[in-house]
Amino acid sequence: MGQSSIRSKWVSLLMLFFAHLFTTTTAEDGLVANGDFETPPSNGFPSEAIAVGGGGTKEIPSWKSNGTVELVEAGQKQGGMILIIPQGRHAVRLGNDAEVSQDLKVEKGFTYSVTFSAARTCAQLESLNVSVAPASQTIDLQTLYNVQGWDPYAWAFEAEVDDVRLAFRNPGMEDDPTCGPIIDDIAIKKLFTPDRSKDNAVINGDFEEGPWMFRNTSLGVLLPTNLDEEISSLPGWNVESNRAIRYIDSDHFSVPGGKRAVELLSGKEGIISQMVETAPDKQYRLTFSLGHAGDKCKQPLAVMAFAGDQAQNIHYTPDSNSTFQSANLNFTAKAERTRIAFYSVYYNTRSDDMSSLCGPVVDDVRVWFSGSERIGFGGLRLGLGFGFLLFVFTVV
Predict the structure, then answer these.
(1) How far from chain centre, in Å, is Cα 235?
(2) Going by C-beta distance under 8 Å and a sequence separation of 6 or more, which residues neighbour residue 82?
(3) Are 38 and 67 in contact (CB under 8 A)?
(4) What is the pTM of this model?
(5) Contact indicator for 344, 302 with CB cutoff of 8 Å
(6) Is 224 exposed, middle or buried (0-12, 13-18, 19+ CB in 10 A)?
(7) C-beta separation of 184 from 217 below 8 A
(8) Where are the alpha helices (DSSP H) in 203-346?
(9) By the 8 A CB rule, do 314 and 362 touch?
(10) Residue 47's CB: how many other CB atoms inside 10 A?
């Protein structure tokens, strides 16, 4: 009797374990489970948009729904408007206060970036809330950055536990309860903050560490406002302004060095910055590459570069054989941390459609001593001094 009871308890525990295993997705870099919404429901895709959740009859595989959530497909109309599907044939539309969520298994203490695509529909003021408790951010979708009608975005969170729930919610309340954003192509990536090199005070100055990017997407990834450099889709960097900046790749854009860079958009409404470690009263030099993304961006292009109390307007005037140029700014540090920042001087658009936002490209950002010394050499000399004293005392 006792053995039978123990066996039953073990069977129950195993059943609970496997049930949790199959309902929680392990977060690996790339598309989350059914992140493109192309996995058909058990009864197949509907011929027209159909609400799921809130008493609906269709489910979205791998996702939980709350409120008016609709599976929509390419070419579908709402009134006289054709709904925009970012990629593939299907996506999800969130109605008033509607939400979709997915449970993910992550590693506690690590920072993750979520990439997703979003498109507007018929709401007057459209936004999207992205959350992994307790972190949350509402992203404004009113600005359309390109003429294709949708944009990829990235948002970062720090995992406080190993099991999290990623949720997308429409915080709006419209007269038409079906009006709301369309989301698609949801991916995740574990981020690592690069080590600061001995001769450069800037972290991730080459922008090689950043959010997940889909190889078949030529729009880059928008990085919205983020004031926490510790939890950023672009490790080390803040986006201070109301508008986003664009994270770009060498597969679809001209990048000065490596595979990644940033494109500054919307004039002084798109500011990227970082606090770098400096020594007070020391002279430093800020250097960076300034370029053209090769996306038919209408010139002139220019950036305003800041380093401490210094600022300089630098125009893009490259040689005929190059798509980028080197730029620099000298400054004297006033404190142990100094702010460096960049924004586009102009509000640029593409010459082929006059609507898609674009701007100058910044890459390979470095801060170092402007004299013969390099960052970290003082520590080296100090270490050698202690070593010499230790040697003398040992000999004596």
Answers:
(1) 10
(2) 75, 76
(3) no
(4) 0.85
(5) yes
(6) buried
(7) no
(8) none
(9) no
(10) 8
Of 101-115, 156-170, 215-229, 245-259, least confident by mean pLDDT is: 215-229
* Dihedral angle over CA of 276, 278, 284, 288, nearest 10: -10
Task: Identify whether the C-beta of residue 93 lies closer than 8 Å to the C-beta of residue 121.
Answer: yes
Are 238 and 227 within 8 A, CB to CB? yes
pLDDT (tens digit per residue) in 278-307: 999 999 999 999 999 999 999 999 999 999
231, two tokens: 């939890």
Q: What's the rounded Cα separation, in Å, for the pair 306 and 342?
A: 6
Q: Are 155 and 114 in contact (CB under 8 A)?
A: yes
CB neighbour class for 90 (10 Å; exposed up to 12, middle 13-18, buried from 19): buried
CB-CB contact of 213 with 207 (8 Å): no
The answer to whether 164 and 112 are in contact (CB under 8 A) is no
Question: What is the separation of C-alpha 258 from the centre of its chain, rounded to a whole number of angstroms?
Answer: 18
Q: Which tokens in the block code for residue 238?
A: 């803040």
Separation of alpha carbons 360 and 304, rounded Å: 11
Q: Tokens for 31?
A: 């598309």
Whose CA is closest to 269, among 306, 239, 307, 226?
239
- pLDDT tens, position by position, 292-345: 999 999 999 999 999 999 999 999 998 877 889 999 999 999 999 999 999 999
Q: Which residue has the tokens 């006059």?
A: 354
Structure tokens at 139: 């992203």
If you compute the radius of gyration of the chain from its CA atoms, what whole number of angstroms results? 25
- Supply 328's token pair: 């620099």
d(CA 43, CA 335): 64
3-state DSSP of 136-186 = EEEEECCCCCCCCCEEEEEEEEECCCCEEEEEEECCCCCCCCCCCCEEEEE
The confidence score (pLDDT) of residue 47 equals 67
Q: What are the φ and ψ backbone dihedral angles of 394, each rounded to 5 degrees?
A: -70, -45
Closest CA to 155 of 62, 79, 239: 239
In degrees and rounded to multiples of 5, residue 157 shows phi and psi of -145, 155
